[in-house]
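Thanks for the sequence, V.! I ran Diguanylate cyclase (GGDEF)-like protein right away. Repeating your input here for the record:
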Amino acid sequence: MSSNLAGRYVRTQTSSIIATTVFFLVVALVLTGLMAHVVVTMTRSANEIDDARASRAARAAIGAFVGRLSATTTDNAIWDDAYSAASSSAAADWAYENWGKTSEDYALYDGAIVIGPDRSSIVSAYAKGKPFQPGTFFGDVFYQQINAAAAPARAPVVNFIKTESGIALIASQAIQPFEDAPKLPKFSVLSFYKELTSEVIDTLSNEHELEGLRLETTPKPEFLNTPITDMEGTVIGYLVWPSKAPGSAVFHQVYPYIAAAIVILALFLIGVLLVGASEARRLRQLAQAAIFEADHDSLSGLLNRHGLLNLLEELENSTSSPHRLYLVDLDGFKAVNDAWGHAVGDDLIRLVAKALTACHPEIIAAARLGGDEFALVHVGSATCGEMEKTILALFAEPFKIDGRTIEVGASIGAAARDGDVPPLELLRRADMALYGAKANGRGQAIEYDPELDRERQRVAELEGLLKNAISSGAIEAVFQPLVSASTGAVTGLEALARWRTVTGNISPEIFIPLAERCGLIDALGVHMLRTSIEHAKGWPDLALSVNVSPIQLCNPEFAAEVISVLQELDFNPNRLTLEITEGVLMTNPDQARRSIDQLKHVGIKFALDDFGCGYASIGALRQFGFDRMKIDRSLVSALDEGANGADVLRATISLATALRIPVTAEGIETARQAAILRDAGCDQLQGYLIGKPMSAYDISSRLKEESAA
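Predicted structure:
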């Protein structure tokens, strides 16, 4: 080979080697650059992903903080006892015992404030168990929140407020009963607040994995920040915490090995990819868990209301067969909590949830709507009656919990999807049916019927008419004579309520229970007392008897109202007898005793009405010191129904005689009945034989005739 050829070959090989070397160098540089770019990009992305996760966690921490205080406020504001206490003279003491004192060392709130219905007067305000001025502590923005929360709602008004010592979360809600009640013009407002102290921040940090979390008044550029805004949207502070920067940490760990070899770099990239995939899988699992928690009840594991509505929407949009919704409310669950505690109550909820879920193969889903109310979604051919029997059968046997035997029943309301019925309407219909089932007594099951809505509308209209009738005086008093069994002379009158309308008379058996249910019984009772006394002043020689509802007697203000009416009308208390039924002795004996003692102290007498049809014991008769006992008309009617009727009646009167309690017999319709009662020792008679209920004018006429005779 010539030198030229050799030179050209060497040059060619050299060039090839150089070219190959350059090529590999270029490839290496390009790969190194690409890998460096990949590493930098992944490092930045990992940091951003974790920062985004941390930001979401910070927002979730605020949301959880808000949710806990909101739930606590709702539990305490939507409370029948709180609603009753808020309108009483003991509102301040009640609020202190239940909220103010608790604030001293209670984890869920630092202070409790009750503002009166005028939205300016402070009924109770305690912070850490000590009284304080909320207006001074929170500023004028506090009363803005009170005004916003004064209307009844099922969700409180919750805002962060800048205080003189920092930042606090305050939740406010109108104090209202658990069940719907007639709308009042104004409500008292309950507010709980919790300060964002360092201890609270540390708790949020531990719960949501936000290391180094702290509260600052201004954002820190070198840290991650989440603003905290007040009710006007103004930023009043920031949650600040350092970024973990996991990508940078990983990069610094592997940096010494990157320059060592491409293999190590490749392994590093593979490791980063695996870490990223693992993190994505973890985040996906967290997202799935969050979705599950949003649609399920934490105690029972069943669907919650939101999850139930989502399921009903899916069924509505699907082509599946028609479905039916059942609402199941436990009868006697409150007694379980009261007797055994909430831990046992929670165990019972879980047992019931498990039993309901597996009660029938056509039940495709179960939900817990809160408290002791459950929902079942049924898709299949089984009839409503079959399903209701199956559900009720679950409660035929008691539940066993830690050796305890616990009995509860159930009331069921059912509604079928009829045509294009949206989920909320289906739920409302089932709830209407459940309301009807509970009204009929325990262990009942009712399927929705449009008549339920029409009946509720009629009741609502009747409530309005009743309210107007009380205020306008359309409900009148009639009087039935009470005569001496020995002389036949009229010794007293019992006042009875009558409601006459243009469409006909409405029975007291209808409008008096209605007044008790809708909160008008106190107004009706005062109206009847006032009207009866105004007429009775024209009959100075006769005693006056007025019936009193157990609800009235259990009202702490009842005695004061009666005394006020007597003083206003200048009526002798010794002429007045209040008639009460046995039920009040069973439901609230302590308050009944206080009211009776207070009224007897001024000279008012008390008669136990309808004796013989209830469960009043001899001890109760002696304890409450009744001045008279009225035998129920059923015992009088029994005189004509059997041979032992007279014996039972004589035994009852003998019991009263032994207790030195005078006896009135009501419902007397025949002379034979009157004679037997007179011989048995009954000193006063009442009934159609003696005289029907008459107007005040007719009573006056009868008295004039008797005096002229």
